[in-house]
Amino acid sequence: MAPGAAALLRRLAVLHAGVPADVVTGYKGLPIRGYGGLGPVRWCLDLCHRAGIRYRKQELVDALTDAGFGLPVATAHHLDGIYPPHTMENWIRLDDQARTGLIELRFSTFDYPN
């Protein structure tokens, strides 16, 4: 079963408690290469941090994939050939076993103007 919007919304506290992001935006993205047909439902989350703040990527992945409280997703390593990790070092993709849903976590840094 694909991770849906309701399942992600029920886990919003993970983004607040587990990730020190200043801004988190989310949207339903366009299909991507690497899947047949129109591909999975693609949920994109942009997590913006102040300069000097550690992203805590692994902690977020651990919370979202937790066996008891997380979503039925895992890291989407099958996309590494299409989207090489070195070109997207601050992106993490999670998908379900049936590959019907995809969560894309994008981490970025910004500086407040003086």
Report on the architecture of this protein.
The chain has 114 residues and is of the alpha+beta class. 18% of the residues lie in helices and 29% in strands. It contains three helices and five strands, in the order ααββαβββ. The chain has helices spanning 5-9, 12-18, 57-64; strands at 23-28, 41-50, 74-75, 91-95, 101-110. It has a five-stranded mixed β-sheet with strand order 1-2-5-4-3, with no helix packed on it. The longest helix has 8 residues, at 57-64. It is globular.
The count of β-strands is 5
* Largest β-sheet summary: 5 strands, mixed
Fraction of residues in H or I helices:
10-25%
Number of helices: 3
Describe the secondary-structure layout.
Blueprint: H1 5-9, H2 12-18, E1 23-28, E2 41-50, H3 57-64, E3 74-75, E4 91-95, E5 101-110
Summarize the structure.
By secondary structure, the protein is of the alpha+beta class. It has 3 helices and 5 strands; from the N terminus they run H-H-E-E-H-E-E-E.
Keywords:
114 residues, alpha+beta, 3 helices, 29% strand, globular
